[in-house]
């Protein structure tokens, strides 16, 4: 199944785009998504451990299962003051 992942902040800058499509097996989790994102965008390797994912507008743990209609956002940590 294909999942659209919206990228924000540093992840968007690294990828050079604000949306990526990742193919995952049925029953995939957020942890599977992390792995697939690094495989398709190796430049995210250092950032991916620190990002939060939101699935259907709620922050999701790595064991959260994705459904075909999941709305997914990749939200890296931000700094500033």
List the main descriptive attributes of the protein structure presented here:
81 residues, 27% strand
Write structural notes for this entry:
- The chain is α+β, with helices and mostly antiparallel strands.
- It has a single domain (2-75), classed as Beta-grasp domain (Ubiquitin-like (UB roll), Roll), CATH 3.10.20.
- Helix content is 27%, strand content 27%.
- The protein is built from 3 helices and 5 strands, in the order E-H-E-H-H-E-E-E.
- The protein has helices at 9-15, 30-40, 45-48; strands at residues 2-7, 19-23, 52-55, 58-60, 72-75.
- Strands 2-1-5-3-4 form a 5-stranded mixed beta sheet.
- A hairpin with a 2-residue loop joins strand 3 (52-55) and strand 4 (58-60).
- The radius of gyration is 12 Å and the shape is globular.
- It starts with a strand and ends in a 6-residue tail after the last strand.
- The mean pLDDT is 92.
How does the SSE layout of this entry go?
Blueprint: E1 2-7, H1 9-15, E2 19-23, H2 30-40, H3 45-48, E3 52-55, E4 58-60, E5 72-75
Query: Which CATH-level-2 architecture?
Result: Roll
Protein structure class: alpha+beta
**Spans with pLDDT under 50 lasting ≥5 residues?**
none
N-to-C SSE string, H for helix and E for strand: EHEHHEEE
Arithmetic mean pLDDT: 92
The rough form would be described as: globular
Number of domains: 1
Helical content stands at: 25-40%
Give a count of the beta strands, DSSP E runs of length 2 or more. Answer: 5
- Percent of residues in beta strands: 25-35%
Say what the CATH topology is: Ubiquitin-like (UB roll)
Largest sheet: spatial strand order: 2-1-5-3-4
CATH class: Alpha Beta
Straight-line distance between termini: 40 Å
């Amino acid at each position: 199944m294909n999942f659209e992942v919206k990228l924000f902040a540093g992840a968007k800058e690294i990828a050079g785009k604000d949306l990526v499509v990742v193919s995952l097996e049925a029953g995939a989790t957020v942890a599977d998504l992390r792995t697939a994102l690094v495989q398709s965008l190796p430049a995210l390797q250092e950032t991916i451990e620190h990002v939060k994912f939101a699935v259907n507008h709620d922050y999701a743990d790595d064991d959260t299962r994705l459904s075909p209609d999941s709305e997914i956002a990749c939200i890296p940590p931000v700094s500033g003051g």
